[in-house]
């Protein structure tokens, strides 16, 4: 390293030092210490007592832990694709040149500004089985179906029925889709017009242009939003926590891994155990992200490459 | 960057930091003189907070040695635990007696026995059902503020409409259910319009139903007894609801429950005729029930007649966290609040009964709640119970809530639910219990030295 390079490195380090200090203090240190605490019996107040792999052993036979993981995977598998598709569709629609385009863009983004807790309270009522707005909309539909087919279908008791609770939560989570839409919109504006013109000359319609031009070009954005969705849905906590009034939902259908970490750490004061759950969750997210990156690498188009 | 500008920014930065520390340091001294400032965290808000704030002002004016800084803090259990762990707790904190087992076991509190002895405060000054919950491991951890006892609250109009004597509440579970069947009404669509009673309305004491069935969910030492006779009887009783009224109609009914502290409350709206509730109901009925709302209070029915008069007594209390900077002064304030005049003022303002053994007649004469003596008598009764001092009671309680929900949805039989609950909770409890046994001796020694 030359003198000049050394100096550059020093200046660079000084410039990123606020971030570096924040990262080490607020992220790296807690991460490492939680890995250590996961090997202890720790109630926050008394000194941690080293217990080896005890917590992990207990976790293996902890039904609630497995259920919380299952719920988390279930929710992620449901919400990530639905949200991605919805975001892309909305972005494509909002990208069409129409009068009042800006108003539509604002309207679709607005719900993302609602704080999580308000969103939880709001959707608790929207999804109410008896007088929720969703069911008020669904019940005429059910009436028609029943009249035609002679069935007796009723709109579901969303948050009181384990079979529908997670679907209800997915519906609620779609309210936050605005952020992804904005990012997709930015991606869409980057698609070179010349490609569309070339496709048009080849006789492509709207859908074929979308599938063969737009989607490949915005694939890095899809990847980014996918990863963000993955991380977000594996950390889902606030909305179900509020929706169930701090509970776990009917039949524990809304007990997620993050909820379980919170309950164990701050209600049962079993911080060591909570750290073990958190660490497992961390490893799962890490592995899935690496997997997604590996799979995506072959399908993503980077203009710079 | 030229040197002078770096210098200016540097000086400015250091200045801001120093100013910040100076602000932090002086804030406590601004009360003036040589007074010792103690910090007091309390969970109450609204009128309940105001009642204590007035007493704090009076205490601060009554002498010039100690100054109490009063702070209303939400989610106090969690924040107190973390502040104590971080070594910077308040000097006094208002928590619930039900939290004392977990707090004391974790070494978060200062034992109060030596302070109480010096101040001449003893068990005989209080209701036995209140005092007993302040003592864990033979040590006193808190002194009470406002207690409560739960009881049957019933809507007299709905009794009359069902052809029942509005002044004769049920005394046994069998009577309760006979009343229930007479009051409950369905509409043409099969939805429940009025329900006599529903165990999950409000369902705040899900884990304690066994009290009214003559038992408990813990043996007091090393075992959870969720599959014991009393709890099984309680769960069978709960399972009789979906059997009689149908899973679907009950689910629909529960969806309409609404917010407790609002006119939506099913008890105030006349949708549920009988509910297990506490002395705070007077206040809520004043605020949210229709003006002509007629209600009565009596002991909650029990399975066997000899257990009639059972109630769950709960108590708000004041503790001195471990590591508090001024425990002596903190206790002086707590002891002052225990004097009859102050205690009666606080309980009157919060519409509770007094936890003290002796109560002035004037207290009842001035109390707006016409039923206040019913609660007090329940708390005086030898049948009065309090939450089991079980280390994992919070988890047990949450798990029991899930079990009851499963039973109400018809997803599990009471036996299945109880067995799953018993196995899981016994495992959880045993882990904590065994860990406690390892440090027990050492902890006791520490407490004796404090």
Could you walk me through the main structural features you see in this protein, from its secondary elements to its overall organization?
The complex is a heterodimer of chains A (305) and B (450). Chain A is flat. Chain A has 14 helices and two strands, in the order αββααααααααααααα. Chain A has a single domain, classed as MetI-like (MetI-like fold, Orthogonal Bundle). With 305 residues, chain A is mainly α. Chain B has 17 helices and 13 strands. In chain B, the strands form three sheets. In chain B, strands 1, 2, 3, 6, 12 and 13 form a six-stranded mixed beta sheet that branches. Chain B has a five-stranded mixed beta sheet with strand order 8-9-10-7-11. In chain B, strands 4-5 form a two-stranded antiparallel ribbon. In chain B, strand 4 (135-136) and strand 5 form a beta hairpin. The A-B interface holds A 41, 43-46, 49, 58, 63-64, 128-131, 157, 160-162, 247-248, 250-252, 263, 266-270 and B 78, 81-82, 84-85, 102, 106-108, 251-252, 254-256, 322, 392, 394-395, 398, 401-402, 405-406, 409, 411, 424, 428, 431-432, 435, 438-439.
Given as residue ranges, the uncertain stretches of chain A (5+ residues, pLDDT < 50) are: none
Q: How many extended strands of chain B? A: 13
Could you give a short account of the major beta sheet of chain B? Answer: 6 strands, mixed
Class inferred from helices and paired strands of chain B = alpha/beta
Give helix and strand order of chain B, one letter per element, not per position. HEHEHEHHHEEEEHHEEHHEHEEHHHHEHH
| Overall morphology of chain A | flat
Question: What CATH architecture label of the largest domain in chain B applies?
Answer: 3-Layer(aba) Sandwich
Helix content of chain B: 40-55%
Shape field of chain B: globular
Oligomer: heterodimer
Mean pLDDT of chain B: 93
Q: What is the CATH topology of the largest domain in chain B?
A: D-Maltodextrin-Binding Protein, domain 2
Biggest sheet details of chain A: 2 strands, antiparallel
- CATH-derived topology of chain A: MetI-like fold
Radius of gyration of chain B: 25 Å
Overall strand count of chain A: 2
- Distance from N terminus to C terminus of chain A (CA atoms, Å) equals 29 Å
What number of structural domains do the residues of chain B give?
Answer: 2
The CATH superfamily name of chain A is MetI-like
Which structural category do the helix and sheet elements of chain A fall into?
A: mainly alpha
- Proportion in β-strands of chain A: under 5%
